[in-house]
């Protein structure tokens, strides 16, 4: 049985003034030991957040495929580890779009994270045009085939299905569409890894998750958690999502 994971992605938000939110979210995580809770934070907040997060893992939102080198402005997995990170998000659609990251880039990043002992959340998702063209499952399964790290055989890896058109828009797919896509992702993972390994990986849903819709999204077949953007920035919005996961 896979434990539910409720992960927050703060994106390019958060100064030290937000540390009390981290502390409050960590307190809620401790109060719900049946659910895994984590936060993907700006790199500058990782170390100060670790100091107030107790047992709740925090991490970064990207890492380079290499451990060091001439890559101005990038961050390497060992740097995240040294700051106290326990996880890293890779392949978010905002980075695929803004930084032009390819599936091969994302694979290298995921492998770097794992090489340094980080849990990895690997994001995939189709655009609205791709969905309207009936290509959603083909696009997402191709992203998985191209970006799945070697050695993807354990609970350290989660796949986050985040339809681009649902991110920050207040729109979500129907429960039937979520279940169908998560089923297609599980089937693809089974093809690539075999039943045993594929059954260990969590598949998260992300895109406009909030306290009101979390329970129904998290109850869909093959949904093992959520990756939450806007509603993870404050405890008053994030804790109800943790509670929804705990209630299932
Ligand atoms: O991109 C997301 C998480 O990675 C989702 O963002 P929102 O929850 O703000 O839609």
Automatic annotation (TrEMBL):
Its EC number is 5.3.1.1. Homodimer. CDD domains: TIM. This is Triosephosphate isomerase. It catalyses: D-glyceraldehyde 3-phosphate = dihydroxyacetone phosphate; L-erythrulose 1-phosphate = D-erythrulose 4-phosphate. Keywords: Cytoplasm, Gluconeogenesis, Glycolysis, Isomerase. Pfam families: TIM. It comes from Sphingomonas tagetis. InterPro entries: Aldolase_TIM, TIM_sf, TrioseP_Isoase_bac/euk, Triosephosphate_isomerase, Triosephosphate_isomerase_AS. GO terms for biological process: gluconeogenesis; glyceraldehyde-3-phosphate biosynthetic process; glycerol catabolic process; glycolytic process. Substrate binds at residues 9-11, 168, 208, 229-230. The active site is at residues 92, 162. The keyword Cytoplasm applies. HAMAP family: TIM_B. It is found in: Cytoplasm. GO terms for cellular component: cytosol. Belongs to the triosephosphate isomerase family. Pathway: Carbohydrate degradation; glycolysis; D-glyceraldehyde 3-phosphate from glycerone phosphate: step 1/1; Carbohydrate biosynthesis; gluconeogenesis; Carbohydrate metabolism; erythritol degradation. Gene3D superfamilies: Aldolase class I. One of its GO terms (molecular function) is triose-phosphate isomerase activity. It is an enzyme of class 5 (isomerase). Involved in the gluconeogenesis. Catalyzes stereospecifically the conversion of dihydroxyacetone phosphate (DHAP) to D-glyceraldehyde-3-phosphate (G3P).
């Amino acid at each position: 049985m896979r434990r539910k994971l409720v992960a927050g992605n703060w994106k390019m938000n958060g100064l030290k003034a937000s540390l009390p939110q981290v502390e409050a979210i960590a307190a809620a995580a401790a109060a719900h030991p049946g659910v895994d809770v984590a936060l993907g934070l700006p790199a500058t907040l990782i170390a100060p957040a670790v100091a107030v997060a107790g047992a709740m893992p925090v991490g970064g939102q990207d890492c380079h495929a290499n451990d060091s080198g001439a890559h101005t402005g990038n961050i390497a997995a060992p740097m995240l580890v040294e700051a106290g990170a326990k996880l890293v998000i890779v392949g978010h659609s905002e980075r695929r779009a803004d930084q032009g990251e390819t599936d091969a880039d994302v694979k290298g990043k995921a492998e770097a994270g794992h090489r340094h002992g980080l849990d990895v959340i690997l994001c995939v998702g189709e655009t609205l045009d791709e969905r309207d063209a009936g290509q959603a499952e083909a696009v997402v399964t191709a992203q998985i085939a191209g970006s799945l790290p070697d050695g993807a055989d354990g609970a350290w890896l989660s796949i986050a299905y985040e339809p681009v058109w649902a991110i920050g828009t207040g729109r979500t797919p129907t429960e039937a569409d979520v279940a169908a896509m998560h089923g297609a992702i599980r089937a693809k993972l089974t093809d690539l890894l075999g039943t045993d390994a594929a059954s260990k990986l969590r598949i998260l849903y992300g895109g406009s998750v909030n306290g009101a819709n979390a329970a129904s999204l998290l109850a869909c077949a093959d949904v093992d958690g959520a990756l939450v953007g806007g509603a993870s920035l404050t405890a008053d919005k994030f804790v109800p999502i943790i509670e929804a996961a705990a209630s299932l």
